[in-house]
Amino acid sequence: MATIIYGSELSKEIREEMRLKLQFFRNNGMRMPCLAVVLVGDNPASISYVKGKQKACASIGMDSLEVVMDASVKQDTLNEKLKELSMNPHVDGILLQLPLPNGLSEDAAIANIIPEKDVDGLTPSNFGRLFLGQPCFTPCTPSGIMELLKRMNCDPNGKHAVVVGRSKLVGTPVARLLQNANATVTICHSHTKNLRDMTKQADILIAAVGKANLFDETYIKKDAYVIDVGVNRLENGNLCGDVDFERVKDVCKAITPVPKGVGPMTITMLLKNTIMAYERGVNYGE
Ligand code: NAP
Q1: CA of 241 to the centre of ligand 1 (A)
Q2: Does the CB atom of residue 85 touch ligand 1 within 6 A?
Q3: How far apart are CA 245 and CA 2, in angstroms?
Q4: First to last CA, the chain
Q5: Are 170 and 141 in contact (CB under 8 A)?
Q6: How confident is residue 265, by pLDDT bands cut at 50, 70 and 90?
Q7: If DSSP codes are grouped into helix, strand and coil, which group holds residue 33?
Q8: pLDDT in tens, 32-66
Q9: Atom 5 (ligand 1) nearest CA
Q10: What is the pLDDT of residues 151-174, one digit of tens each?
């Protein structure tokens, strides 16, 4: 049976280190790092994600600022708010909760976040730097995945990693991080033929599709490292991943569960990036 790697436990350890660091800042009279979270509209999932992020900030003593805007907000008004937060010296990181309501452009909005505060790593500057192998803020879920692989004692160097999903939030950046770590990377998506033949070759499988239990044991190479990013709600209200955990756990070497796997690591990496932004600072000019 595989080793089950809980992101919730790894998160606890990393958050404790961050809490101690912030306590040190506070004891030395420094201001606390602050994450601004911008929520547009009233999508219940987004509201719950935003609450989770604020709770996580509070748990380590980090300040947070919530900006709520109506779903009918004009693109210009949203852009202006993001510009204003970018110039606010009390704000270190800015997270725009996605997806935005219909009619608003995510790309047009994100372009107003200065790269120094782009703790989600989604501005063209940070995304480009990731692909150029330059220092940058990396998107939080992919960073969390790399930490989970480390916890599995899995060095991607020389391994074949298969990433299923090519979104800008998960699949594309994690494929690049794996390549930067010297894995040989195959990216699969909805047009991929013979998906099973691809994933069967994976020493490392990253499942980031959003289809409940898509991957059973017939998709998995023996002793693979399996990271299940998918979050799917079943009819009975329970959450499950893209990987059929019960059927895969006896084939692979290590696996992350859903829930308590990748999800908590995503928020932890957001906190980590915000502290990094605080420490690097911003030169606002005169
Ligand atoms: P997304 O933007 O919808 O992308 C899904 C990807 O899966 C696309 O690239 C799509 O291909 C591909 N795909 C769809 N059906 C497929 C199939 N049958 N075979 C192979 N590939 C297929 O989703 P996302 O934002 O990347 O998120 C993916 C999943 O991860 C979702 O369940 C989401 O809730 C979850 N997630 C979890 C966290 C976390 O922190 N735990 C964070 C982010 C996302 P095309 O490009 O061809 O359409």
Answers
A1: 11
A2: no
A3: 10
A4: 60
A5: yes
A6: very high
A7: coil
A8: 999 999 999 999 999 999 999 999 999 999 999 99
A9: 209
A10: 999 999 999 999 999 999 999 999
